Amino acid sequence: MHAEIIAVGDEITSGQLLDTNSQWLALRLEELGIPVRFHLTVGDDREALAGVFRQAIARSDVVLVTGGLGPTADDLTRDALADATGRRLVLDAEALEHIRRLFARRNRPMPKQNERQALFPEGSRVIANAHGTAPGIDLDVPRSAAAACRVICLPGVPAEMREMWVDAVAGLLRAAGAGGRVIRHRRLKCFGAGESQIEAMLPDLIRRGRWPRVGINASQTTIILRITADGADEAECLAAMAPTVQTIRQCLGDLVFGEEDDELEHAVLRLLDQKSRTLATAEWGTAGTLAQWLGSADRDGRRYLGGTVLRSATSLPGALGLAPDLAEDPSPPREALAQAMASAVRDHYRADYGLAVGPFPRFAPEAPTPDRVFLGLAGPGGVSVRPIAFAGHPATLTAYCAKHALDFMRRELLK
């Protein structure tokens, strides 16, 4: 059994509204062991809707539709579903009475057009909507080459849709055989190499048709490996994924810094905690990004003692007490500057480690060789400096440099 999710509405296709319903439903379907193969969005066009419904019914066992069940002329889901399945719309008296009662409870007259919400393709079952005027539609559509397709239409209002899923739809799908197996994922987070390099380091793991499946994607320069398995229960899924997780860790070594919602700041703070060490930061180019990340992850301030943000050379003496002659030079050697910043912030906060990000150079994407940003790290063993290439998409450069600084700290702590 596999599923398809269709979101209906011009407000979605035009980009005016973000479709969160499809994401939520996909997660719920996977909890029932039903993989989702397609997500579609279609505007309020009856002919287009009917065509999309015909296509979905032909290729998917379960089709979940959200939106287009309102009372207005542009709410066309019920009409298009009737067109796609060759059925007439019929009035459901019980659904109509429910809608009337809702208006009465709200002490409002019911407009004539709300009667449309009690129309259903012939043969449908009504899915109750306790707090809204748009009942859901549950329809089995026979197919010549496969078992019947189950089409379930729900309102686009997220609160109503979710309530109807919990109260009715999940149970309906379980009764139809879903829930016998579950789908689970594990995510490994990596930093220090690109997607293609990491894929090359893995022995044929990222291959179509492999089980458990392994997928790879990048998010703000972090590489995420996603392992997926299905089984009778969560324990069976986790057991099936364990050898793959072990292989990935063996192949990638310390490129892997965490799992699931871990970020590099969490990995650094864990290592600081293990070694009972503290950290302070000084940032120029990253403009406080490290302080925000570390401060949010270490809310009680046990390991991250604080940070200093600089934006010009004139602030060096006042912020970190550095020698005036270093500040007087409008363009001091950036390597020496990163080193001095790291030592000064360590002393200023009386921390075990001081981590510094120097100023960013001017972004020049056409340069034959990229300019560099210098990172400084001062600790019990002395001060070291690491240059990193200032290259990549401008939108990710700040995160890229901040993550390199955290990775510099992480690898020092792993020694």
Q: What characterizes the major β-sheet?
A: 6 strands, mixed
Range of strand content: 15-25%
Task: Please estimate the helix content.
Answer: 25-40%
Poorly predicted runs of 5 or more residues: none
- Major sheet strand order: 2-1-3-8-7-6
What sort of overall outline do the alpha carbons produce when their principal axes are compared?
elongated
Beta strands, count: 17
Q: What is the CA-based Rg, rounded?
A: 29 Å
Q: Oligomerization state of this entry?
A: single chain
Number of helices: 14
Average pLDDT level = 93
SS class: alpha/beta
Query: In whole angstroms, how far apart are the ends?
Result: 49 Å
Descriptive notes:
This protein has 14 helices and 17 strands. By secondary structure, it is α/β, with parallel strands linked by helices. A hairpin with a 2-residue loop joins strand 10 and strand 11. It is elongated and about 85 Å long. The mean pLDDT is 93.
Q: Would you summarize the structure shown here?
A:
Helices cover 39% and strands 24% of the residues. It is of the alpha/beta class and 415 residues long.
Q: What labels would you give this structure?
A:
single chain; 415 residues; alpha/beta; six-stranded mixed β-sheet; five-stranded mixed β-sheet
Q: How is the secondary structure organized here?
A:
Blueprint: E1 3-8, H1 10-13, H2 21-31, E2 36-42, H3 46-59, E3 62-66, H4 77-85, E4 89-91, H5 93-105, E5 119-121, E6 125-127, E7 136-141, E8 149-154, H6 158-175, E9 182-190, H7 195-201, E10 213-219, E11 222-231, H8 234-252, E12 256-259, H9 264-275, E13 279-283, H10 289-297, E14 304-309, H11 316-320, H12 324-328, H13 334-349, E15 353-357, E16 372-379, E17 382-389, H14 397-414
Parallel strand pairs: 1-2, 1-3, 3-8, 13-14, 13-15
Antiparallel strand pairs: 4-5, 6-7, 7-8, 9-11, 9-12, 10-11, 15-16, 16-17
